[in-house]
Amino acid sequence: MKAMLFAAGLGTRMKPFTDHSPKALVEVNNKTLLEHNIRYLQRFGIYDVIINVHHFADKIEEVLRDNDGFGSEITISDERKEVLETGGGLIKAASFFAGESLFVVMNVDILTNLDLGKMTEACTDTDSVATLAVMNRDSSRHFLFDESMNLCGWRNNKTQEERISRNTSPLHPFAFSGIQVLTPAVISENPFEGKFSLVDLYLHLAKTRIIKGYNHTGNLFIDVGKPESIEQAEYLFQ
Questions:
Q1: How confident is the model at residue 231 (pLDDT cuts 50, 70, 90)?
Q2: Does an H or E element contain 42, and which?
Q3: CA dist., res. 6 & res. 53, Å (int)
Q4: pLDDT given for residue 225 in this prediction
Q5: What residues make up the domain containing 223?
Q6: How far is CA 228 from each of CA 15, 100, 141, rounded to the nearest angstrom?
């Protein structure tokens, strides 16, 4: 199985660190987020990884080169000219996944002890085109699922904006963990071009296809998105 790490973001919430370095190189217990997540994927037998780069791309490439990919085979998806967001980034890297029946995509700035093996097994046991790791936790935005954990919509909890793909009730809100197990249909049935979010693609596909939520509430999880989150991450992931 192959995987993609999203590492192209500007990391504006992590300023001032990201004024001179990419967020992927933030250190937690003397290891960069980049290394943490490459090694996380290795624990589940994934050693073939593509990483998109934009913000201080040279520094990410240098760290990977100096450390021999931390033991993995690394491919770079170069977004130096324009950061393409999650959806555009995945489509740019689409050829990397040719021939794969399943693949993992995740954000580089999260840390978790989610059992990716069990999540992958859950994906193969359904007819879903995508399985999204979600938790019952506070967030500014939530995916909305029906009783069977089929994706039905999305809500911005600050603005109360809702985007509904399937009209059903009740709807259950879950926060997205930034990890997904995908099938090739997510790429082949994508109607968008250029820069776009995977959220847009999932909401589009959910109108006619099954997208499942994988509830891993109770696992350790942290989005290392702000300087103050580093101390908490170091406590949780020693």
A1: very high
A2: helix 33-42
A3: 8
A4: 84
A5: 2-236
A6: 11, 38, 21
pTM reported for the whole predicted model: 0.96
**Average of per-residue pLDDT across 40-52:** 98
Residue 61 pLDDT > 90, yes or no?
yes
CB atoms within 10 A of CB 165: 20
Q: How many domains does the chain have?
A: 1
**Start-to-end Cα distance in the chain:** 27
Average pLDDT over residues 203-220: 98
CB 4 within 8 A of CB 104: yes
pLDDT-based confidence at residue 126 (cuts at 50, 70, 90): confident
Q: What is the CATH number of the domain that holds 110?
A: 3.90.550.10
Residues 6+ apart with CB under 8 A from 23: 7, 9, 11, 14, 17, 33, 55, 108, 109, 224
CA neighbor of 114 nearest in space, from 90, 135, 137, 100: 135
Spell out a b/e string for 169-201, using b for 16 or more CB atoms within 10 Å of the CB, else e. eebbbbbbbbbbbbbbebbeebeeeeebebbbb
What's the Cα-to-Cα distance from 3 to each of 102, 218, 230, rounded to whole Å? 9, 24, 25
Counting every residue, how long is the chain?
A: 238
Return the pLDDT at 189.
98
CA angle 154, 50, 24 (to 5 degrees): 70
